[in-house]
């Protein structure tokens, strides 16, 4: 009596292959750049961090798609896609990220459903909720925060090259589409 819609998973995956490949290239370029910046002296990073390079996604704003920034990024709204910045990322208490995060430094006070990769320091505030893996060089977790996933913390986590992370990223991207 009721018809069911047949979906072709193989065709859907093929349709996603090109966008995923482009996204993976962009993420790899950002990872390489962040790894180079992490190896540079602090004066080089300080020169790049200018007061006018701050980006704010306001409360109530919803972005459907990936977001990348050269400068600091403050999220107060919702992003349904991956977030990448060469600088610092702040996920405010009102923010929701439904995708992966790649940043030099990150502070999470809101909710993240995806992998969080910080090449420097990651701070998970008491109000922060992360449902996904964390890869970072340095970690600070406040009492009261919520985390469901795996941690990879230390020197190897900061080098920007993770063989197992590529497969994990592809699976996460396919699952969120």
List keywords for this structure.
alpha/beta, 177 residues, disordered C terminus
Structural account:
By secondary structure, this protein is an alpha/beta fold. The protein has one domain (13-176). It has helices at residues 9-39, 42-48, 163-176; strands at residues 54-57, 62-64, 67-69, 72-75, 78-80, 83-85, 88-91, 96-97, 101-103, 105-108, 111-113, 116-124, 129-131, 134-141, 146-148, 151-153. Strands 1, 3, 4, 6, 7, 9, 10, 12, 14 and 16 form a ten-stranded parallel β-sheet that branches. Strands 2-5-8-11-13-15 form a six-stranded parallel β-sheet, with no helix packed on it. α1 (9-39) packs across α3.
User: Which of globular, elongated, flat, extended, rod-shaped describes the shape?
Assistant: globular
Rounded to the nearest angstrom, the distance between the terminal CA atoms is 30 Å
Give the DSSP E fraction (strand runs of 2 or more residues).
Answer: 35-45%
Q: List the uncertain runs.
A: 41-52, 161-177
Alpha-beta content class: alpha/beta
- Quantity of strands, as a count: 16
User: Which whole number gives the mean pLDDT?
Assistant: 77
What is the H-and-E element order?
HHEEEEEEEEEEEEEEEEH
The level of helicity is 25-40%
Overall number of domains: 1
Number of helices: 3
Q: Radius of gyration, Cα only, in angstroms?
A: 17 Å
Major pleated sheet: 10 strands, parallel
